[in-house]
Please model this.
Amino acid sequence: MATSTRSADYWSLTKPEVNLLIGFTTAAGFCLARPQGLDGFPFIRLVNTIVGTLLVASGTGTLNQFTERRFDALMRRTAKRPVAAGRIQPSHALAFGLSLSAAGAIYLVAAVNARQLARRGQPDLSEADRPDTALSLRKA
Model:
């Protein structure tokens, strides 16, 4: 099998169309959930969140095609999917899906939550809870 065809098959396992929507939804959720007291917008954290989420979503899309391969082979709409059509071996799809999912989870922990892990044991005080600003906020 040609390398470009194999690459295209692995790419399609990740369900890129669905993941585009997942990326947009992740970005929107990130922006809406961001604490307003932060100085500046955390672009790096946003990018890391999107990348990690897309890796996990790609892994789950791949694992879905692995799990559903027998049913996909029976339906006209899904029979041409790489695993159902036999272009990618089920064991390879399983390994690929597990690898993507694990890589995404590890990436999210390391790149997005590293700050919280480093500060483990220290309270995460919001501006209203900090002793130096709590008094000034109560007086206002």
